[in-house]
Amino acid sequence: EDDGNDDNIKRTSRRNEDVDIIQSNGKDKETTRYSIGDYLSALVTMDMSLHSMEVVNRLAPELHPEYIHLFISNCIASCESLPHGQNRLVRLVCVFLQSLIRKDIVHDIAPNTPLFYEIQTFCIEFSRIREAAALFKLVKSLQ
Length: 143
Description:
The chain is mostly helical. About 60% of the residues lie in helices and about 0% in strands.
């Protein structure tokens, strides 16, 4: 397997180009083909940005919950790894998560689940940010 595939998929996704999401059959040498699993895995693990959140938000109703959970975890980890200048990114992630919850795309945030604890911890860590406090209240209201 070509280790460069994930990088190619991520670059293509960042440029907002159409991607041929079909299983490779090895017959077409001129067109790089990816399996849908490869594409989605690369998408949910790519560097978090406004664009990647927009893409996932647009695809979310069609995605398996596992991919959405991976992307949420990736977003949270991205925020936690940044230095103090991360307020804008945290606000974006909070608004994105609220949108997914309100659209009932992420509907399995129940107490005692890993996703619940991950989001709750994120909200507490960034509680000084208004959107994180609002997300915390929303998640708590789901209990």
